[in-house]
């Protein structure tokens, strides 16, 4: 018992060390370069949305004060809670960034606990260390984007689903299933792409634990997600006189995804709307009509490109987007590159972690670990969705801590193999001369 207690204490000391280290490196960009941590994109719109929600009670997006269905409400609501306490000026922005740091540190803690249950304590410490110092995780925690919240919820979903499928009693499994379902609901309130995850999880559980368990979980998750989403659906019906379960915002990402390497400015700016690329049109004050215009423009552009260069289009919608999302993952952060978070070395580290994860995934699959199968289903789902739309790396960012747990597992297994080999080498009797 004393030995086990000592190991437990040592494990939590390592976690505390990496949490402190993670906090320091996350706070540094906010303190040193807080004014540079703007993408001049969704982040500013989210902050304005939060301020408008506090000031007028209207959930809107970007600069106008009309009700919106362009984005999901949970992350702006979180920012609104911070803005209500600290205002919508510099102090409000600072407090909002600090809330992202807190969520990121909570993700490290939860990730450590989950991996210690899945694999072992060494792998858990390695995973916490990776996510504590992984440069994009440091940078993203200080940006006002959905990534911080959605990554935490993603890890919580995987952990609760894991516990629901391995609980020792029916009561325990039921509690974890409830938590998993509500987490899925909150994920959907953050990003609409989560709406089909109950089916993905049900399919993964059917393969790993049998179709009855998969079907039962899928049905219960759908019911819980429906309950969580009901206030949002009712609100949309009141404002727009139609049933809108998620958002009406697929036109922009679909049209963006038709541009090679997501270079939407390749043809210059539109003369009618100079803040938009050439050919992009909108109906001022009408997001729904604008979304329909952008979707139709995207379909027309894709068909035109397919008629001119089908091989190039096919390559972009398969290999090109896949590479842009996963292999060239740091491309979208170049606009705010900081001298102490250089892009190129960070990209080398990212690719190394991907290669290690491939090895860890092979080992986990050979050991028939259900968690590996769930990750594969989720990764395929998110990747497939964004192959159709824009392949921005930030959209697969929330899966990276789970992926890097496989990197850590491969690293731990490799070190263990080398250690065992050296021990056998020392014990080998000397060869007689």
Automatic annotation (TrEMBL):
Q: Which UniProt keywords apply?
A: Cell membrane, Glycosyltransferase, Membrane, Transferase, Transmembrane, Transmembrane helix
Tell me the domain of life: Bacteria
GO BP terms: namely: lipopolysaccharide biosynthetic process
In which broad location class does this protein mainly occur, judging by the first location in its UniProt entry?
Answer: membrane
Q: Which residues form the Glycosyltransferase RgtA/B/C/D-like domain?
A: 73-232
Presence of the UniProt keyword Glycosyltransferase in the record: yes
Q: What is the designated name of this protein? A: Glycosyltransferase RgtA/B/C/D-like domain-containing protein
């Amino acid at each position: 018992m004393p030995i086990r207690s000592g190991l437990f204490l040592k494990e939590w000391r390592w976690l505390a060390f990496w949490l402190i280290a993670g906090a320091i490196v996350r706070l540094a960009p906010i303190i040193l370069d807080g004014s540079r941590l703007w993408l001049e994109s969704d982040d500013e719109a989210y902050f304005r949305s939060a301020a408008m929600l506090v000031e007028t009670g209207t959930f809107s997006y970007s600069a106008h004060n009309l009700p919106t269905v362009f984005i999901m409400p949970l992350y702006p609501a979180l920012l609104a809670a911070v803005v209500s306490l600290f205002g919508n000026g510099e102090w409000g922005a600072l407090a909002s960034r600090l809330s992202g740091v807190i969520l990121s540190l909570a993700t490290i803690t939860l990730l450590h606990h989950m991996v210690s249950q899945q694999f072992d304590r060494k792998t858990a410490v390695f995973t916490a260390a990776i996510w504590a110092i992984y440069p994009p995780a440091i940078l993203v925690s200080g940006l006002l984007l959905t990534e911080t919240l959605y990554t935490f919820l993603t890890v919580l979903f995987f952990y609760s689903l894991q516990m629901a499928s391995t609980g020792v009693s029916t009561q325990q499994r039921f509690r974890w299933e409830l938590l998993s379902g509500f987490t899925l609901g909150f994920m959907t309130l953050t990003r609409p792409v989560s709406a089909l995850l109950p089916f993905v999880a049900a399919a993964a559980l059917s393969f790993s634990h049998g179709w009855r368990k998969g079907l039962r979980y899928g049905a219960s998750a759908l019911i819980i997600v429906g309950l969580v989403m009901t206030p949002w659906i009712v609100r949309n019906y009141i404002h727009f006189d139609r049933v809108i379960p998620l958002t009406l915002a697929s036109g922009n990402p679909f049209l963006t995804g038709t541009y090679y390497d997501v270079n939407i400015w390749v043809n210059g700016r539109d003369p009618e709307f100079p803040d938009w690329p050439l050919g992009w049109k909108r109906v001022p004050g009408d997001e729904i009509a604008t979304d329909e215009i952008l979707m139709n423009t995207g379909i027309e552009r894709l068909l035109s490109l397919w008629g001119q260069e089908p091989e190039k289009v096919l390559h972009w919608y398969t290999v090109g987007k896949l590479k842009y999302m996963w292999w060239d993952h740091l491309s979208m952060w170049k606009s705010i590159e900081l001298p102490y978070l250089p892009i190129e070395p960070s990209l080398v580290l990212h690719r190394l972690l991907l290669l290690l994860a491939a090895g860890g995934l092979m080992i986990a699959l050979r050991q028939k670990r259900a968690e590996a199968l769930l990750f594969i289903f989720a990764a395929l789902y998110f990747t497939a969705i964004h192959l159709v739309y824009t392949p921005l790396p930030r959209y697969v960012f929330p899966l990276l801590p789970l992926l890097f747990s496989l990197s850590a597992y491969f690293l731990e297994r490799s070190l263990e193999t080398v250690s065992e080999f050296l021990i056998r080498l020392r014990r080998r009797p000397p060869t007689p001369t």
